[in-house]
Amino acid sequence: MIPAVDETHDPALRSWVESANEGSDFPIQNLPFGVFRPADSMVAPRVGIAIGDMILDVGAARGAGHFTAAAGEAAKACMAPALNDLMALGRSAWAALRRQVSAILRQGSSAAAARQELLVPMADADMMLPARVNDYSDFYASIHHATNVGSMFRPDSPLLPNYKYVPIGYHGRASSLLASGAHVRRPNGQRKEPDAPAPVFGPSRSLDYECEVGIFVGPGTMLGEPLPMRSAAEHLFGFCLVNDWSARDIQSWEYQPLGPFLSKSFATTVSPWVITADALAPFRIPAFVRPVGDPSPLPYLQDDDDASRGGVDLSLEVFLRTRSMRERGATPTRLSRAHFADMYWTMAQMLVHHASNGCNLRPGDLLASGTVSGPEKSARGCMLELTWRGKEPLSLPDGETRTFLEDGDELILRGECVRSGYVRIGFGECRGTILPAPAGPG
Amino acid sequence: MIPAVDETHDPALRSWVESANEGSDFPIQNLPFGVFRPADSMVAPRVGIAIGDMILDVGAARGAGHFTAAAGEAAKACMAPALNDLMALGRSAWAALRRQVSAILRQGSSAAAARQELLVPMADADMMLPARVNDYSDFYASIHHATNVGSMFRPDSPLLPNYKYVPIGYHGRASSLLASGAHVRRPNGQRKEPDAPAPVFGPSRSLDYECEVGIFVGPGTMLGEPLPMRSAAEHLFGFCLVNDWSARDIQSWEYQPLGPFLSKSFATTVSPWVITADALAPFRIPAFVRPVGDPSPLPYLQDDDDASRGGVDLSLEVFLRTRSMRERGATPTRLSRAHFADMYWTMAQMLVHHASNGCNLRPGDLLASGTVSGPEKSARGCMLELTWRGKEPLSLPDGETRTFLEDGDELILRGECVRSGYVRIGFGECRGTILPAPAGPG
Questions:
Q1: Percentages helix, strand, coil for chain B, rounded to the nearest 5?
Q2: Which of A51, A245, A387, B266 has CA 20 to 30 A from A36's CA?
Q3: Which of B28, B10, B105 lies closest to B67 in space, CA to CA?
Q4: Residue A1: which pLDDT band, with cuts at 50, 70 and 90?
Q5: Which residues pair with A33 in a beta bridge?
Q6: Band of the pLDDT at A99, cuts 50, 70, 90?
Q7: Mind telling me how many Å the CA of A288 is from chain B's nearest CA?
Q8: Where does residue B400 rank: exposed (0-12), middle (13-18), buried (19+ CB within 10 A)?
Q9: Section A57-86 average pLDDT
Q10: Nearest 5°: CA angle at B99, between B96 and B100?
């Protein structure tokens, strides 16, 4: 069952952390989990919960006796330097912890007196990857993205016949998952111009981003044991933002017949705060309604719950700040805004499809949605689509132009859920800046 | 530099473990590493070295003071329940340990007196996966396999234009890597007959194996730092056998445009003994010589050392034992025999290509070669090729036929290196038996 709205979503709730009450991404109704380390320290990373511009140190709160037995197991799992143990516990443990954290941070709580011990300013913390990701899989769930890209790479068959039946995905590279803020080196690789007799090796000339939504798996599944749709929500801990950096020239040359490999594996950036499925309960909406004439999903991908609330009313924005903008102190410029509700497949369908062959999922596995693009030009979630493979360069406010990313460019993803009668939930940022390519090997 | 032949390869060496001197896969010249646990026990898995039909318990040998300081660090790394720590240490540590293990197991060593404490019979041990594999990548390095498969799936363009330039690969699934001997459930999945209007979901009807060679990464590489060919051998700990189980009907429907996913991720079986690059020094041969007219590899994939000794003179055999053969006590029947020397790309080229975009490799990462097929029909390394997609069923000795694998079929991969003047090195077995598909989800 998809989590229900409860008292922790009450828009009247306010926190004794004042910055949480002022339109922050992290009001007391959000309470996302992350892993942080006090900046410039060598202490082990630990689990925190974002509240306004502060981080609640869960270990400190536990040590001070703020949790009762009902949340004891979940609070103990937060002593690890990654969220995997908490993710493994399951929905009732998560909900118990959320209720108690909400109470601790609420105006009137006695915990406010221990502000100094419990809170670390975000400005004084380094954020880590939220989990040890054993396996990372990436999907292709936006039919708008698939159609746009397909019409560039395969003009004769933009949307392949399997698309409306199979939640298309592939295995990604886990080793190069990066915490938000880490710089990204432009990759070297093989590229081949259409008329050239042979490929050349060198820095990618068409480095791109992809704005995606990720989910972290909660309790795992057993090898050989598929997951029914009705149980999918029990295995979905929470959501994040993912930038699936992509070298389009490397991709177009390498991707047949086994799919993208080095065009993607040089870096994937993940936002630091995991927005729990519990926090998003007020923002669940019906899954994408397929146009008349499209086939229904096969039975193993159908579920009443999913049809009624399988979607998430989440808006995604992409911002670019070039080196010159940074030097002038200019604010980032928005490149696009898209809606996660436009995805052809829900995250539950991706989870269930992934496990349908018996493949085992483990706590902390990351599944990303693929580029989130909408039907409008302003909702295209990567530069490949925005510039139509470089043919229609973007004009930036200060007169610069871009076909793809240049060295020094900083790319920022943001996400938010807004609904009348509820407090806005933000996703924080997923951020990375491009460094020049290294000298090639050899 | 590729390891050199030294005194540990001397064919005159004999062990006080008698079974090692009698044509075993594991003579004293081999000394492969694995992770074992005494059968039916709950003790932690530990590192062992195969010798004849016994396992040297490295921890026991260390505890008894058999290692001197030169091998101290490597022996200590073997206290872990996986080989990752040893793999991370690098070539000089591995070589020091090998020299001392060779001395300990040699006829005349005082260690023979401690036989009871140092050895565990293989028959009394369960073998684990050799390493915690964080990332598993699979290549496509046999041009014969690529051409055969391509001509079935894409008759108009069997070998794609990138093949002779790019060591084609894709990311595999790490969670479903299995130790040899584990049963493999037939996967459910979507398949679509060419003339059917829509796909159906159910047990795969064309379950296949792929006979591959795997390598385990030794010391890792840093993100953003490519690996030059001249350093590749420093990062290659050892070799194993890999069975990349494949559901061909799921694969042909799902694989465009992002490559194989659920058709592979239900299970991949890995042989338990890692044959070190050191052990294989006498069997290194020149890399595959490309036919006249084929392009040279791009410079980042070229190296003198690789050209002269980048290949491995390794033969691979595939055996099948059906349920009926097992019930009758019949020996497995051989389906094919292929030579790893026929691969278009060397493992060093695959490693260097993998890191060429800055993707970081970690100790214990597994890279598999892709199906090893040769030019002869008898050297085709999967059933898809042997039966030409089911059109030419195999006739088994007892009158049974096979187009693909049936429930109850047991598949066994074996490998060996043979060279005049040296003792034969075996790879042991990579084994798995097919179980019926589970009830579908939903």
A1: 25, 25, 50
A2: A245
A3: B105
A4: confident
A5: A49, A274
A6: very high
A7: 20
A8: middle
A9: 97
A10: 90
CA distance B186 to chain A (A): 8
Cβ of A171 and B265 within 8 Å? yes
Interface test with B, best of A156, A184, A261 (most B CBs within 10 A): A261
**Predicted ipTM > 0.90:** yes
Query: Count of A–B CB contacts within 8 Å?
Result: 238
Catalytically active residues of B, by annotation: 145
Is A183 a catalytic site residue? Answer: no
C-beta atoms of A174 and B174 within 8 A? yes
Averaged pLDDT, groups of 10, chain B, 442 residues long: 95 98 97 95 93 98 96 97 98 98 97 96 97 98 97 88 98 98 98 96 98 98 96 97 98 96 98 98 95 96 87 98 96 98 97 98 98 97 97 95 98 98 98 92 52
Q: How far is CA A155 from the centre of its chain?
A: 30
Asked whether the beta carbons of residue B175 and residue A438 sit closer than 8 angstroms, the reply is: no
Handedness of CA A200, A202, A208, A213 (dihedral sign): positive
Q: Mark yes or no for CB contact A295/B198 under 8 Å.
A: yes
pLDDT (0 to 100) of residue A155:
86
Confidence at residue B371, expressed as pLDDT on a 0 to 100 scale: 98
Dihedral sign (CA B114, B117, B122, B124): positive
Three-state DSSP class for residue B159: coil
Q: What is the DSSP string of A45-108?
A: PEEEEEETTEEEEHHHHHHTT---GGGHHHHHHTTSSSSHHHHHH-HHHHHHHHHHHHHHHBTT
Q: Which residues of A touch B260 (CB under 8 A)?
A: 258-259
What pLDDT, on the 0 to 100 scale, is given for residue A442?
47
Nearest chain B Cα to A221, which residue?
B175
Q: Do A160 and B257 touch (CB under 8 A)?
A: yes
Instruction: Report chain A residues whose CB lies below 8 A from the CB of B355.
Output: 441
Compute φ and ψ for A9, nearest 5 degrees: -100, 0
